[in-house]
Write a structure and sequence with these properties.
By secondary structure, this protein is of the alpha/beta class. The chain is built from 15 helices and nine strands. The chain folds into two domains: 228 residues, Aldolase class I (TIM Barrel, Alpha-Beta Barrel), CATH 3.20.20.70; 82 residues, no CATH class. Helices cover 44% and strands 10% of the residues. Bound molecules: flavin mononucleotide.
């Protein structure tokens, strides 16, 4: 049911997530209502060396427009070289200054650069100079050690000419603990002229509304809540009265037994993910399939038992079929757990 007092629509972003936001998942998220998608982050070092696996992560499709690859790195020359190479294929290039992973921060990349504003700004300036397309950035609220540098950095990057900034409302030190601080995002929104995209802890229409009310951001970026649940974009849009057209899973949902609706939506999304993955990868390599299989079944009764089977399923086709059968059985309310 729509929430009262509609607010103006803003674009919904699928957050970049390593191991999750592969091309088929990004296309699926768009079919589910995401307006903008960003690739998982890829190391500039690998791309610079022409590592085939790194470049494969940055594949796109004409249906994904704008195409926004995200890169990270601690070496300015590598970031610049990669930006230059990408700028002939990308619509926008996104630079990651938000990753808290120790193996990234150890190399003075990701969120670690928030502790060295001069180096970060110099890197962004050089990337903008090397790029034929706009450059955006994703940051956290500083490192959490010492003063919060995020607002100062954002001001400087605005002056350098970045297109927009996505802000995850946590510090590097927090990683994923505590609540995202939407009030600090609001301070950045009020202080900057470029669009600020709010990120952190948006999980449904209600939190999307509250986040927008607090931050007044130009867009919302949704990460963990979309894993295994790409329909979140549609749920937010219909919950906020931004979309009234029938959901693409409406027919399947109508066939569900009472209580099986969630499984029906997941089944639609899983089948569509598998179709898009087959288009993108053919019969070959899909390193993320098992992870998606687990997340698409999470929260459905009997999933943990079924997951044990998934772990020993090696063939992609078998895995797709096992998940399909499980979700269909759940949707139809059968008590048989496959
Ligand atoms: C599994 C996983 C992988 C992630 N990978 C990336 C990444 O590649 N690039 C990035 O900028 N952020 C990455 N993030 C952070 C998310 O983009 C997002 O900022 C964070 O999850 C907070 O948003 P949420 O509360 O909506 O999940 C990742 C997060 C998760 C959970």
């Amino acid at each position: 049911m729509p929430l009262p007092a509609a607010m103006d629509p803003v674009p919904l972003f699928l957050a970049p997530m390593a191991g999750v936001t592969d091309l088929p998942f990004r296309l699926l998220a768009r079919e589910c209502g995401a307006d903008i998608t960003v690739t998982e982050f890829t190391a500039a070092a690998g791309l610079n060396r022409d590592d085939a696996r790194s470049w494969r992560r940055l594949e796109s499709d004409p249906r994904e427009s704008p195409f926004i690859p995200q890169i990270f790195g601690g070496v300015e020359e590598e970031m610049v070289g990669t930006t230059r190479a990408l700028s002939s294929v990308a619509d926008i290039i996104d630079l990651n200054f938000g990753c808290p992973a120790p193996k990234v921060c150890r190399n003075s990349a990701g969120a670690a650069l928030l502790g060295d504003p001069d180096r970060l700004v110099s890197m962004v300036r050089a990337c903008i100079a090397a790029s034929d397309v706009p450059v955006s950035v994703k940051v956290r609220l500083g490192t959490g050690s010492g003063p919060n540098t995020a607002l100062n950095i954002a001001h400087r990057l605005e002056a350098e000419g970045i297109l927009r900034i996505a802000v995850h409302g946590r510090t590097l030190r927090q990683r994923y603990s505590g609540d995202a601080d939407w009030h600090q995002i609001r301070e950045m929104v009020d202080a900057l002229s470029i669009p600020v995209i709010a990120n952190g802890d948006v999980i449904d229409a209600d939190s999307a509304r509250r986040c927008l009310e607090v931050t007044n951001a130009a867009g919302l970026m949704i990460g963990r809540a979309a894993i295994g649940n790409p329909d979140i974009f549609r749920r937010i849009k219909s919950g906020l009265g931004w979309s009234t057209s029938p959901a693409p899973w409406a027919d399947l949902e109508a066939q569900a037994m009472p209580g099986g609706e969630r499984a029906a939506i997941k089944l639609w999304a899983w089948r569509r993910y598998c179709e898009l993955a087959e288009e993108a990868y053919g019969d070959g390599r899909n390193n993320h399939l098992k992870r998606h299989a687990i997340s698409f079944t999470k929260g459905i009764a009997g999933a943990s038992k079924m997951r044990i089977r998934l772990h020993s399923t090696l063939e992609a086709k078998d895995l797709m079929h096992t998940v399909d059968e499980f979700l269909e059985t759940s949707m139809l309310g059968s008590s048989i757990i496959v």
